[in-house]
Write a structure and sequence with these properties.
Helix content: 40-55%
Low-confidence stretches: none
Bound molecules: nicotinamide-adenine-dinucleotide, magnesium ion
Number of helices: 16
């Protein structure tokens, strides 16, 4: 461990300008005696990364965009921070996430772009705090095998998976991805989801919902992609696949439960009838603080849960007619890696197209379904297979988006 003092952890944050990145820095800010920010990365937000450099004084930063990297470098010189090394390009992300002076990597890039830098951290045997669920969805067994082989420590950040992790026995916590839940008395994982902003909306009206409505999650404040995924419940689908890999269970062992208040973040059912739940206000700083300090506990800045103002705990079964993307993801999880890699790639293209107002909300499912059906039987056994399939699915899904544009005209939406 690189350390100024024995307990100091050196942190690399991949995606520091995003919603998870900001929450991570907020927790770190409260504990200057425990955490030292060694490196940060962003896609192109120069202004925010400059602000973060000024406050946290990292050694190295990566801006994926070359133009942004140049801009940042000039701004750092102007601000007397020329000692901070600025790198650009996606391979530089792998360099910072595997650097020898890093103990812990927060993997908070959105989408499959986070896969290679997260995998680089795993291969370097780091402690990896995994927010980037798409990396695991897209590469499943290959990712977990690398965790095992390289002795990396995987700690889930996704609030549901972090909750499940907290409800599991210690010997299972020590082996995410290759533990045996059944022999530890666990009979089921209960994955909760709020149902997003359209839970009570008439199915017929889903076709005409706007980007603004889809991004207005009732309980969580998140990046745009995961907000849309929450509205379609593809997010729960990706989390279903993520849970399969993180906890080494079969799809039959995971049950999705709608819980509109997002107070219970997920549950674990034991064979003696006990159900253990993790609760808290919906604020990602709780799972982030949990993972950063694991196995200790630190202040996260999150208000404690007030049971007297928490109205009620409601639970519902999922209406798969309303959320076909969730059904598709569960099917993909049963089909295998080709289907999951295809699902993730298609969904990224479809959500991008919806966010840029090129397709309707309900077209997201159509693009995802057509893409999964086309690529369902692809063999994916290596990281090169993942990259190759991801590329081909994106190209195919983009042709589907273009078909919508050609047939219906952009202004329709
Ligand atoms: P966000 O859009 O707010 O931030 C994404 C970050 O990734 C930014 O720093 C951005 O600069 C960077 N980035 C974007 N594209 C990139 C690329 N091509 N290459 C390198 N960097 C790139 O996203 P977010 O909401 O913080 O989510 C990040 C990840 O965490 C996602 O995988 C999401 O599913 C997961 N997650 C988020 C939440 C949440 O509450 N926001 C909860 C659970 C899981
Ligand atoms: Mg989640």
């Amino acid at each position: 461990m690189n350390a100024n003092s024995q307990n100091m952890r050196s942190i690399c944050i991949l995606g520091s300008t995003g919603s998870i990145g900001l929450s991570t820095l907020d927790v770190i800010r409260r504990h200057p005696d425990r955490f030292n920010v060694v490196s940060l990365s962003a896609n192109s937000n120069v202004e925010l990364l400059l602000e973060q450099c000024t406050e946290f004084l990292p050694n190295e930063v990566v801006m994926v965009s070359e133009i942004s990297a140049k801009e940042l470098q000039q701004a750092l010189i102007k601000n007397n921070l020329s000692q901070i090394n600025v790198l650009s390009g996606s391979s530089a992300l792998e360099h910072i996430s595997s650097a020898s002076d890093v103990d812990t990597v927060m993997a908070a890039i959105v989408g499959a772009s986070g896969l290679m830098p997260t995998l680089a951290a795993v291969k370097a045997g780091k402690q990896v705090l995994l927010a980037n669920k798409e990396a695991l969805v897209t590469s499943g067994a290959i990712f977990i095998e690398a965790v095992k082989e390289n002795g990396a420590q995987l700690l889930p950040i996704d609030s549901e998976h972090n909750a499940i992790f907290q409800c599991l026995p210690l010997n299972v916590q020590n082996k995410p991805g290759y533990c045996d839940l059944k022999s530890n008395g666990i009979s089921k994982i209960l994955l909760t989801g709020s149902g997003g902003p359209f839970r009570t909306l008439d199915i017929a009206k889903l076709e005409s919902v706007t980007v603004e409505q889809a991004c207005a999650h009732p309980n969580w404040d998140m990046g745009q992609k995961i907000s849309v995924d929450s509205a379609t419940m593809m997010n729960k689908g990706l989390e279903f696949i993520e849970a399969k890999w993180l906890f080494n269970v079969e799809p039959e062992d995971i049950q999705v439960v709608l819980h509109p208040q997002s107070t219970i973040h997920s549950m674990v059912q034991y064979k003696d009838g006990s159900v253990i739940a993790q609760m808290g206000n919906p604020d990602m700083r709780t799972p982030i603080a949990h993972a950063l300090a694991f196995p200790e506990r630190i202040d996260s800045g999150v208000e404690p849960l007030d049971f007297f103002t928490t109205a009620s705990f409601d639970f519902e079964a999922v209406d798969y007619e309303k959320y076909p993307n969730l059904r598709l993801a569960i099917q993909a999880c049963k089909y295998g890696q080709g289907a999951c890699t295809a699902l993730n790639a298609a969904n990224e293209v479809a959500v991008d197209a919806f966010l840029s107002k090129s397709i309707k909300f309900t077209d997201i499912y159509k693009i995802n379904e057509t893409s999964v059906n086309k690529f369902v039987s692809e063999e994916v056994t290596s990281i090169n297979d993942v990259i190759d399939l991801d590329k081909r699915v994106r190209a195919f899904s983009k042709t589907l988006v273009n078909d919508y544009l050609d047939n219906e005209g952009k202004e329709t939406y």
